[in-house]
Amino acid sequence: MKYNLAKDTKLLIAEDQVLAKSHLHYALEQLGFSNMDYVDRPSTAITSLQEREYDAIICSYNLRSDQGGYYLLEQLQSQNALSLTNAFIFTSADTSAEVVHAIIELQPDEFIAKPFSVNELDRRLSRVLSRKAALKNVYRCMDKADHEKALYEVEQFLLQPEHAEHFPLAMKIKGDLLILNERFSDALAFYDAIINVQDFSWAKLGIANCLLALKEFDDAEREILQLAMRPDSELAAYDLLARLKIQFDAFDDALECTNLACHISPRKVSRHQQAINLARITHNYENQFSSAKQLVRYARDSIHDTPDIYLNAARAGVDFAMTSAPEDINRIVKQSTSYLQQLKQAHPNASLKDELYVLDARLHYLKDDVAKAQSLLSDFHIDQAQHHSTEALLDRAKALHEVGLKDDSLKIFEALSHRLKKHERSDDLMSRYIAQEQEEKTAISLSPKALNNSAVAEYKRGNLEQSYSTFSQAFRVMPKNPSIALNYLQAIIRARKSREALPADTRQAIKSCRETLESAQLSKEQLSRYETVKSILTNNGK
């Protein structure tokens, strides 16, 4: 460590373990650092950063309060409170894949595994502080969002051989800046030139991003699939692949990619929200509830900890219960209501009377107490819509439709549609979901629960041909339900009175039913029925 570099550097240390703090203090003193402040929790770290200027923050990922170091860096980034000229270094005794991926996604300047030697700390700190000093002009321009000037500065930097040790990082920054300046063709040529010299994953990811921006989708998909095979880029590849699939409305595939990314790195809240919205669009109610529960788990005690995350988990549970078998409803409802208890504990002063009334109404409807559900929903006028969140209005629209007040439900959907258009909402998945819900609620009068019950009753009575419409509507809103899929498939077969070619929509329905059944775990009775159906379809050449 150069003496002047250590002497002139102001450090903030966030560490709450006495032995680790003592070891770090000793090591830093050995390296010549003397200007050091210590804190033991994220909140006091933020206060210190507001009161003083620091050149570097060394933070334990494993702080035992709040959400630890992850929470601290996430909050600093969300508030733009950390300059790019400042260094942020994580230390952690936990080097599990989940932690490593979480840290990589936050992109600190360095990650040092505990325990570490004085020499290891020297090597890592020297590298970080020297590159911060060398690239300070570039970082200052980037802090001001002057990307053109930053690009000029980094190009000048790359012309100076004395900075050769920092060239790989500088080249990555140049590629990022070309994309930020929307110079996608230039960026693509730049990344191609990099790959010809060395096969950097960041350059290949840059190529994939450029191809997506240039709408070269086939080439982009080939690049992304190759990246998904590399351990150091598979997470980013799944995110890119989900983005590509969304572009083509392949929402089931997008959900699968998003779930894979959530499994690899579960702490990113925005990814869980994307999974929720994709699950909604694909009518995957179980996945929606699972993703909502994960969001609560990882958002708790963070900047994302709001009343809405608990409400949305409860709402997702009710959606799931509406489409589930009767014997499963009580279990799911119990899980859903537990989030309302967690809400009261986490946000005891939140004013949520209207939202809770709607959830209570939906729960009463699940218990077949329609009159009570209707009474809980009565005190609302469409003019009040502007005072409610999109999620709150969406839940009320569902509740009104469920209890038979279809016209009132559709008025809310119309208000939501106007709101999204007016504000030019950037969340395309939410816009798509609301449009889909509005279309389905317009076309179908029964709730998912009523459709499910009606379809089962029709099957038990043997009215397969007469109940074709019921099964069709039920499968439209519950395409992942194997019982509905099997009943609908049998209804399609029995409803066919001639050997005429099947219409395209019927062929697609058969294909969708079979996809659901092939991926489900069927009972012996269902399996026997499905084998019979398959033999009929085979004989008819379907």
Specify the biggest β-sheet.
5 strands, parallel
Question: Helix share of residues?
Answer: 55-70%
- Poorly predicted runs are none
Rg from Cα: 28 Å
Number of helices: 28
The counted number of beta strands is 5
Q: Please give the alpha-carbon distance between the first and last residues.
A: 74 Å
What proportion of the residues form beta strands (DSSP E)? under 5%
Q: Which geometry do the CA atoms define?
A: globular
Coarse structural class? mainly alpha
Averaged pLDDT? 91
Strand order of the largest sheet: 2-1-3-4-5
Can you give a write-up of this model?
- Strands 2-1-3-4-5 form a five-stranded parallel sheet, sandwiched between helices.
- The model has no long low-confidence stretch (mean pLDDT 91).
- Helix 17 (307-322) runs antiparallel to helix 18.
- The chain is globular and about 85 Å long.
- The protein is mostly helical and 542 residues long.
- The protein has helices at residues 3-7, 18-30, 42-51, 68-78, 97-106, 118-134, 136-143, 147-157, 167-180, 184-197, 201-213, 217-227, 234-247, 251-264, 269-281, 285-299, 307-322, 326-346, 353-366, 370-377, 390-402, 406-422, 428-443, 448-460, 468-477, 482-495, 504-519, 524-539; strands at 11-14, 36-39, 56-60, 87-92, 110-113.
